[in-house]
């Protein structure tokens, strides 16, 4: 069945029981939030059952913000090596695979990584002619220096871009670990690397914490002009983050 899907569509495997409290599968909304018309459409299929932590199995509002931004600025992706933090089911990384040289998608959850690896198989250049990048999945728990060093050893050229969308929204303690990870990745390439963060504001305490941690880690956050927008009933914005 999958082999007969039309060319130019993104096939995304999702967990069958990834549903809202009202019984509506969250992924039914996926085609409406993804990308500009000229880039990708989406076909959904379902796989197995979900575990209790659905965080990485959902496509959060920040993904729409980031994917819209990337699809309008594909020139920044051309020929780049990209690492995505908190990739979840891999929608953003698969988009980047159309334009980048190499895309490494990361997550910490083993169940999510199973889905992610299957989606990568479906979008390998040998299977999908629209994807030109080498797509890889890696386990990465934020703040885990051993895992970060292993990734940097495996991809010894480092990365041109670090991507993240809505990736710290549930637990305040994850924010310092996120910026620990970003700092290590940025330091590997210095000025040749930047972090593109799609930020969705949900609480002022989180807004302040993100800015505080970026500053504490010696980073400068620049709001990208024209990217501030409503995502559903929330306000989102794209930041470019550099080492000072």
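^ structure tokens above, recovered residues below v
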């Amino acid at each position: 069945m999958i082999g007969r899907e039309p060319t130019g569509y993104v096939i995304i495997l999702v967990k069958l029981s990834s549903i809202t409290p009202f019984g509506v599968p969250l992924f039914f909304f996926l085609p409406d939030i993804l990308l500009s018309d000229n880039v990708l459409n989406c076909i959904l299929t379902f796989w197995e059952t979900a575990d209790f932590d659905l965080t990485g199995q959902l496509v959060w509002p920040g993904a729409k913000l980031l994917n819209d931004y990337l699809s309008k600025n594909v020139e920044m992706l051309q020929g780049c090596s990209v690492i995505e933090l908190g990739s979840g089911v891999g929608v953003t990384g698969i988009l980047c695979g159309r334009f980048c040289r190499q895309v490494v998608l990361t997550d910490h959850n083993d169940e999510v990584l199973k889905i992610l690896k299957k989606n990568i198989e479906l979008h390998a250049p040998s299977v999908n002619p629209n994807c030109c990048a080498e797509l890889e999945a890696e386990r990465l728990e934020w703040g885990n220096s051993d895992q970060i060093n292993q990734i940097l050893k495996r991809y010894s050229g480092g990365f041109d871009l670090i991507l993240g969308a809505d990736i710290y929204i549930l637990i305040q303690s994850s924010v310092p670990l996120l910026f620990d990870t970003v700092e290590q990745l940025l330091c590997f390439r210095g000025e040749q690397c930047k972090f593109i963060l799609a930020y969705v504001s949900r609480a002022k305490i989180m807004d302040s914490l993100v800015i505080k941690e970026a500053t504490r880690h010696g980073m400068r956050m620049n709001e990208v002009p024209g990217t501030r927008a409503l995502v559903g009933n929330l306000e989102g914005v794209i930041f470019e983050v550099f080492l000072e």
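Residues 1-11, 14-57 have pLDDT under 50 and may be disordered.
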